[in-house]
Amino acid sequence: SSGINAEYGGNGVLSFSEVEKAVKSVLKLDEGQGAAKPVIAQAFKVAKDCIKSDRWDTDGDNYVELREFRFLLLSLRQFMEYWEVFNRLDKDGDNRVGYDEFKKSRKKLEEWVGPIQDMEKEFMNMDKDGGGMIIFDEFCTWAIKKSLDLEMKEDS
Predict the structure, then answer these.
(1) Where do the H-state alpha helices sit in 8-133?
(2) 142/120 Cα distance (integer angstroms)
(3) Residue 133, beta-bridge partner list
(4) CB under 8 Å to 74, separation ≥6 — which residues?
(5) What's the rounded Cα separation, in Å, for the pair 52 and 101?
(6) Are residues 29 and 23 in contact, defined by beta-carbon separation less than 8 angstroms?
(7) How many Å apart are CA 14 and CA 69, to the nearest integer?
(8) Three-state SS string across 56-67, please?
(9) Tens of pLDDT, residues 88-110
(10) Inter-residue contact 116 to 148 (CB < 8 Å)
């Protein structure tokens, strides 16, 4: 048995480590490719929380259940796309987007999400923790609200 079946614990749920190991195996990602961890973490969080668990052992809300697996796959695809965009904005490769990086990417961002009236205000709204940098999960929240679609915009 290979792929996800090899990682599945047989308990009816998938843990984060099982999902991470399976995704890295299927996509042939090595430890040097840091993209997998934040993408998998975001997708796992969305999938495990999308349907309230009715499991008797109360483990369901901390794991991805079979009925949430489709959401996991859809989320992985979506967050891989967001990671691609995030990395295009993150010019210095520190896994954070500063205001200067954000401002310099205005033209590209507007191609993906439409007009942005006030770049500074938009940045401040994205920077939920007020740290002066946008981290991946903050970017994802913004991208979802803006219906960011890299694939559609780049193909047209």
Answers:
(1) 16-26, 36-49, 69-89, 99-104, 106-113, 119-126
(2) 14
(3) 98
(4) none
(5) 39
(6) yes
(7) 9
(8) CCCCHHHCEEHH
(9) 999 998 999 999 999 999 999 99
(10) no
Residue 135 has pLDDT above 70, yes or no: yes
Task: State pLDDT tens for residues 8-51.
Answer: 567 778 889 899 888 888 888 766 556 678 889 999 998 888 87
Please check whether residue 74 is in contact with residue 54, taking contact to mean a CB–CB distance below 8 angstroms. Answer: no
Looking at residue 133, its amino acid is M
Structure tokens at 92: 């210095």
Which residue has better confidence, 81 or 53?
81
**Beta-ladder partners of 100:** none
What is the number of other CB atoms lying within 10 angstroms of the CB of residue 98? 18
Q: Which residue has the tokens 């205001």?
A: 99
